[in-house]
Queue: 2 jobs
Job 1
Amino acid sequence: MCGIVGYVGNRNATPIIIEGIKRLEYRGYDSAGIAIINKEHELKIFKEAGKIIDLERSLPAPNETSGNIGIAHTRWATHGEPTTTNAHPHTNCCNTIALIHNGIIENYKILRKKLEAEDHIFVSETDTEVLTHLIGHFYREENNLLLAVQEALKLVEGAYGIAIICSDFPDQIIAARKGSPLILGIGKNEFFVASDVSAIIIHTKRVIYLQDNEIVTVNKNNFEITTINNKIVTAKVSEIDWDVSSIEKGEYKHFMLKEIFEQPKSVGNAFRGRLIPELSTTRLGGLGLTEEELRQVERLHIIACGTSWHAALIGKNIIEGLARIPVEVEYASEYRYRNPIIPDNTVVFVISQSGETADTLAALREAKSKGARVFGITNVVGSTIARESDGGVYIHAGTEIGVASTKALTSQVTVLSLLAVLLGRMRNLSSTYGTTFIEELIKIPEKIQRILDNNEEIKKIAGTIKDSTNALYLGRGVNYPIALEGALKLKEISYIHAEGYPAAEMKHGPIALIDKNMPVIVIALKDVIYDKIVSNLEEVKARKGRIITIATEGDETIKDISENVIYIPQTINVLQPLLSVIPLQLLAYHVADLRNLDVDQPRNLAKSVTVE
Ligand code: G6P
């Protein structure tokens, strides 16, 4: 989704803000632009459809783009095609104000009509341009830019993170947020605004997370935060506790590959300090719930989108199995609009890697408005979902840059399994099981590493299916959501159509698709339903489907019905997804890479979907 960066200080703004938006490329975008105010106090705008590199190539000589203040934007098209005209920044009629925006202005049509009636001339199809003209309108009336921004934002429905510069105030940025993330970075005699910490972390680790309806006015020496109603706000400065190496690829070809390979560590980080072996249970202090309150939980709702939703499905299976508490899993986009029934003693969990997904945030607010206690399972510290939840659990996976989520899923599942044991041990789960769980969980990082060591073999198998046009993924029980996730990974980055199914469901439809060209990727691990799934495999083989099996180490017989087998180590059933997903991530990665596709920035996708 769109990215925002702004700089004011003593240095030349242009290279800083361009570098900043490059750090946000991973979020997904289709055009980019910058605005600077030069030494002659002129506002200059440069924008281009396509990649940031295209924008850089189109820039005039450095002396024409230099200035100590600037804003930059990457746009992911919502209203209007990804053209240069629709790219941000947008300006008011007299080209004195430049504005960049993340989010959607929902009432833009009405506002645009009114402004057009007052002789404002629009050049783009965007919702954003309305904001620029609206601020321009109030600025003309009030002659006070901050007041004009406040008045304009009061009329706006929807979500925004914005940054504005104006040639009448050549050393000042105004930025505001409602619904879309925005931070102020504090340097020495310089400040930054950004939609994401990664854009500015090479310059400063001291940040303020703006809250909804807050506006910051900043020059190179100081800043002031007010609300939309002009009340002064005292904000807390936070220190970022990770460094720039976590947002660099290092020795890896792509971020996605790096993140897949980080999983032994990231899974370990998700359970470190959260196991209590002497009591055969776990602790999740961030929930802030007493034992009494945890015992009273009668039902869970887990809400999420995308890969996080797959983690939720796995969580349902594990929590219902171990804690015997009914769990409903729902897409956030559905939950928010369907007036969900939330009985007493139901707790709601929202899962979001970014902590900013618009639908998940809206679902959280919907559940809270109905009186439910809502907990977040998030990765990004200080994200909106983390802040708005009643409590939560950070997964501590480290920054995830690849659009196709990998390490976030395994960390989310780890946390959900800790939750299952925590709730289970307060109910009927035996201490023997609790102990086995802890012993097995501790071994998972090393087992993931063993699968990763098989990367070259998995790459070879990827070569055998790279030219396919379709693929089917099958799994059962706790591995059924992994089949969904495997299919999602493949389609996201390789653009091969893929579907995931519960293996036995195949004969109710998808079996019609199976022929000698159809790769069927099956998770068939040695557990209670192993024999059933082998029967499903036979059905595929009888129709000449090309079977790739994810099997348990030592299972030699599975080779007879498979074209290729990828072995994974044995573990207890509830932890299997942490292993079975790894080869599917690698398989999707290599297929996309062998097809020479842009693995980290697949077409049309965004890392963090901050619009509905
Ligand atoms: C986007 C990303 C997915 C991600 C989903 C949910 O679609 O491309 O990788 O799973 O959003 O994101 P969240 O940050 O809420 O987990």
Note: The mean pLDDT is 94.
Job 2
Amino acid sequence: MLGRIVDIVAESGRRVAAAHGFSVENKGSRENIVTSADLENERFLRSRLTELIPDSSFVGEEGDESPILEEGYTWIVDPIDGTMNFSRGIPEVGVSVALFKDGKPHIGVICNPFSGRMWTSEIGKGAWRDDVPIHVSDRPLEDSILSTAWCCYRKELAPKVFEVTERLYPGINDLRRIGTAAVELSMLAEGAVDLYFEIRLSPWDYAAALTCIKAAGGVFHGIEDDVWFDRPSPVLAANSQRNMDRLLDVVSDVFNGKTPY
Ligand code: LIP
């Protein structure tokens, strides 16, 4: 099954990389956009993936809200994660496909159509980048790179996120903001970055990459409890429980232990 999903994601990546002359529309704000390439790739992925597993549920960024099945299979898909990057020709973009089994992460596949990098994972079997086994890093906090974002879709939340960044920065190595959660979280799974925090993401942004992190020995969490996969959620991820504890301490203190939406 993993191999057949990889083949479909690879084909969708080639379609995204070849997309030109696409239209761009706002989804409610100047920061939140969708292109005709997003819509076309979601249609392609919906068709091919639900054909692979008949009776599976499909949750996509650009489509209707389907449920995550408590029994059976559910696809959670972002056809182009990092749409703003894509629309401006910035080659940091992810096609993200998660397959949940009985409501839990099972398989995660993410590809960057421009670099050709493909992250794959299956819970209980492992995680790979381009077929090479990957694992989270063992870096201590002071050597850690934090990948983060400041909630461009809900800028009223940004001041507190900047406070989190300000409080963590002296004690870590450095920051990265690449603009695609799916790829940045996959980079944590392969040990390139070590911490991730974003106060509000949608399940299609992270479902596949968190599957990869879990299979690669990393940890993730929300603020009060686990990451929610049925609605937008805070996403904290780390290469170790020790580093997660520090990240969660700061985030929880700044947000008073509560999800602010
Ligand atoms: C994007 C995320 C990114 C986040 C952006 C946006 P999209 O997903 O992957 O990390 O900071 O605000 O949500 O909307 O391009 O699929």
Note: The longest helix spans residues 36-52.
